[in-house]
Amino acid sequence: MLPLAITAYSVVCAAGFGRRALFDALQERRGSLTPNDFTAQPLPTWIGRVADLEAPAWDLPAALAPWACRNNRLAWAGLNTDGFKAAVAAARDRYGPRRVALVMGTSTAAIDATEAFYRHLDDPAATPANLRQQELHTPHSLGHFVQRAVGLEGPCFTIATACSSSAKVFCQAERLMRLGLCDAVVVGGVDTLCNSVLYGFASLELLSAQICRPFAVDRRGLNIGEAAGFALLERTGSDPGSELRLLGYGETSDAYHMSAPHPEGLGARLAIEQALARGGCRAEQIQYINLHGTATPKNDAVEARVVADMFPASTRASSTKGWTGHTLGAAGCLEAIISWLSLQTGLIPGTLNTQQLDAQCGPQIQLENSAAEVRLALSNSFGFGGSNCVLLFGRAAA
């Protein structure tokens, strides 16, 4: 494992634009979920919608207009928040555009544009020009777009492993750097609301008509959100001012069921063990775990048992999806960023909206916010098909 420095990062989600907006929402326990108003016939659920994403401020410049869709628009907002685009430009100048790689995670890519294209099949002449661009309708649409938007020429990948997509980007980045294929990596995750996602999760009976309550005894399912998160990874020592580190990761595949987790959480346990081993850490050294915690019955029960079995009572753990909703392919990066905020500020978020924890939960899972020094943190991401990823982050002093 090659420890990597996190030298810049940005975030846009339902809590707002930028790290400060997200931190304030967490600290003030101010949720961002609202009744669903997405699409002409909204499903009865709650969503984590990014407000003002349709504002002219986030229109793509003319050179990128052929890539116009909601997902790329959100990516553009993320790139232009928290000074991230300028940080990437500096890295590009420092190393050269061919020595900066790009690894994006998404589960939907630009499928909202594909949905729009199909609505014009009866009148092809009325189809907007950008919807005729073939590259827009591929799973790699996000990678193509971001690479052009920031002017990079190095290796470019898009990872689509459902809800672990933008957690796995960190693992890929470490391997690229360790093999000497690049000197820096831009990683990120972007997923937006769309019909395919909302109706797809509804068909699986996983959407909750009420606001989501992770790990609650009366949980009923998840709420979908949207987000864009980006980070710049470099070798430690490249930026002496950066204190955040990627220290370890674990990746496993249950291959147990298309949508349900392994009943004993086997893949989750192995991924946690791998992340700790790569970082040379023990479970009792972890101060905070950002849980996957989707508020679905099976996922939360399995994850709660794994955490109760593997970590001491002193470890603090929570799901933050009550603030943002489940942002699917962007969740790994978004929740990594929440872990970094905890490392930097000592704020340990609780579990919003939940009143009474399920009996499966151990003392690790907390409802209320707390404050403590956080030196090491884990972030769990468990996707459909048993695609698991656990990330270990720490401060340089650790």
Task: Pick out its properties.
single chain, 16 strands, three-stranded mixed beta sheet, globular, alpha/beta, 398 residues, 11 helices
Would you mind describing this structure in some detail?
It is a single chain. With 398 residues, this protein is α/β, with parallel strands linked by helices. The protein is built from 11 helices and 16 strands. Strands 1, 2, 5, 6, 7, 9, 10, 11, 12, 15 and 16 form an 11-stranded mixed β-sheet that branches. It has a 3-stranded mixed β-sheet with strand order 3-4-8, with no helix packed on it. A two-stranded antiparallel sheet has the order 13-14. Helix 9 links the parallel strand 11 and strand 12 (316-318). The mean pLDDT is 94.
Task: Describe the SSE topology.
Blueprint: E1 4-13, E2 16-17, H1 19-27, E3 34-35, E4 46-48, H2 70-79, H3 84-95, E5 100-105, H4 111-118, H5 141-150, E6 156-159, H6 165-178, E7 184-191, H7 195-203, E8 224-225, E9 227-235, E10 244-253, H8 266-279, E11 288-290, H9 297-310, E12 316-318, H10 321-324, H11 331-345, E13 347-348, E14 370-371, E15 376-383, E16 387-395
Parallel strand pairs: 4-8, 5-6, 5-7, 11-12, 11-15
Antiparallel strand pairs: 1-2, 1-9, 1-10, 3-4, 7-9, 10-16, 13-14, 15-16
Helix pairs in contact: 2-5, 6-11
The CATH level-2 architecture is identified as 3-Layer(aba) Sandwich
Q: Distance between the terminal alpha carbons, to the nearest Å?
A: 16 Å
Mean pLDDT, to the nearest integer, reads: 94
Largest sheet: 11 strands, mixed
Strand content: 15-25%
- What oligomeric state is this? single chain
Q: Considering the protein shown, what is the CATH homologous superfamily?
A: Thiolase/Chalcone synthase
Helical fraction equals: 25-40%
Total DSSP helices = 11
Order of helices and strands: EEHEEHHEHHEHEHEEEHEHEHHEEEE
- Enter the CATH topology name: Peroxisomal Thiolase, Chain A, domain 1
Detail the poorly predicted runs. none
| Rounded radius of gyration (Å) | 20 Å
Q: How many β strands by DSSP?
A: 16
Question: Structural class, judged by helices and strands?
Answer: alpha/beta
The number of domains? 1
Task: Identify the overall geometry.
Answer: globular
So what's the CATH class? Alpha Beta
